[in-house]
Amino acid sequence: MTDPLLEARGVTKRFGHVQALRGAAFTAHPGEVVALIGDNGAGKSTLVKTLSGALRPDAGEILLDGRPVEFAGPVDAQRRGIETVYQDLALAHDLDAAANLFLGREVTRFPPLHLLDRGVMRRRAAEAFDELGIRLPDMSAPVRQLSGGQRQCVAVARAVAWASKVVFMDEPTAALGVVQRGQVLDLIRRVRDRGVTVVLISHNMPEVLAVADRVEVLRLGRRVARLTAADTTVEELVSAMTGGLDQEDAA
Ligand SMILES: Nc1ncnc2c1ncn2[C@@H]1O[C@H](COP(=O)(O)OP(=O)(O)OP(=O)(O)O)[C@@H](O)[C@H]1O
Q: Could you list the residue ranges that cross the membrane (predicted)?
């Protein structure tokens, strides 16, 4: 297997009396879909936040390309090629898909005046959506007029457009119907096929096995199992999450 792209080693994080992470480990390799699973409160979101610069670990190490890094914040992590698609999407609902793709990173025509170059943004957005096989009914409609699945695709496209290394997706299909869910899973595979690593947090075990190459399991703030999706069943995943399987080498 290739060298890890992004790694957490012995990460601890406490919120008041709650020890959210207790020496957690995590490994993502280049160009794979790796699912991060665990019961409610296992520490998945907290771990993802430490790996994407939103939270600073109390102790432990984050390594990017084999070298220890300390992210100053999410923007610092983004600069290093790490993007996150949040559960609440964080889209601007009154803006169209192209404007959302460039939200906070607008292309200006004449930098001193900060005139937005909508033409360039529209063209680049259309290319980005095309490349990912995303078809929207109306590119100039505010995203509030899109379906939940289409909005999710815009959020994923935005992360992928800027991520050179890793995209974290926290429950990207949670609010979606069956067809839309399938579209987002296809999109995740296409992102992986472009060489970008996808880290998927999901409570949907069949979905995890359908789309992930590997699965890492967190329980009570530490990694308890690392599994190859093709050799694993839903029962084994549930067993690992609930304490029935604890691989000694997972730490
Ligand atoms: N900002 C915070 N302040 C206080 N406690 C927190 C905070 N964030 C997380 N926690 C606690 O840390 C623990 C781990 O939470 P986390 O959200 O990382 O788990 P999770 O595995 O993502 O859970 P879920 O699947 O329910 O989203 C929980 O007990 C949670 O209540």
A: none
